Amino acid sequence: MSVRRAKAVDTPAIMGVIQNAYVRSRYVGRVGVDETYAKRLIGQCVMKDGIPRDGGTMVAVSEHLPGVIDGFIIGILDRVYVVGDRLSATDLMFVPGAGTTPRDAIALLDAFLEWAGSIDAVHEIVLGVTDVFGSYEATERLYERKGFERSGSMFRRTK
């Protein structure tokens, strides 16, 4: 397994990971995937990959075989609490994929953390966990092992 930065030609494979993840999500049958929007978003993130300022991104993919993408992470840079004079790095999407192992997830997370840690203007790194794919306790434990601490909660109300 290897982790590398994504290229524009990886967009269809990343979309495949998204579609495979969707069928495992709590959204299946309730909310669809807007493929046009998702492809545009992925493309924009790949284009901004490596920009070390507000709006910059990183996109990393994991492969078990060359050219066979089975997971990805998209990180974004934004101002701390939207208006700060320093940056916050956060994960926009973190999808290890259906067939990936915990080691694969850790490798993707490590690529994100290395990227975020390399940018002097980053004040904090913020990661989220949700129940989109079921239990999130293992992900919480991974984040805690990486030195993260809880800083709030998410609440949801559907219509």
Compact description:
The chain has four helices and five strands.
Describe the SSE topology.
Elements: E1 2-5, H1 11-22, H2 35-47, E2 57-65, E3 68-79, E4 87-95, H3 102-117, E5 122-126, H4 137-145
Parallel strand pairs: 4-5
Antiparallel strand pairs: 1-2, 2-3, 3-4
Helix pairs in contact: 1-2
Describe the structure.
It is a single chain. By secondary structure, the protein is of the alpha+beta class. 31% of the residues lie in helices and 25% in strands. Helix 1 crosses helix 2. The longest helix is centred in the last third of the chain and has 16 residues, at 102-117.
The assembly state of the depicted protein chains is single chain
SS-based class: alpha+beta
**N→C terminal distance:** 41 Å
Number of strands: 5
How much helix is in the residues?
25-40%
- Average per-residue pLDDT, rounded, comes to 93
Count of runs of 4 or more consecutive helical residues: 4
Q: Order of strands in the sheet with the most strands?
A: 1-2-3-4-5
Whole-angstrom Rg = 15 Å
In terms of DSSP E residues, the strand content is 15-25%
Gross morphology is globular
Low-pLDDT residue intervals, each spanning 5 or more residues: none
- In sequence order, what are the helices and strands, one letter per element? EHHEEEHEH
Biggest sheet details = 5 strands, mixed
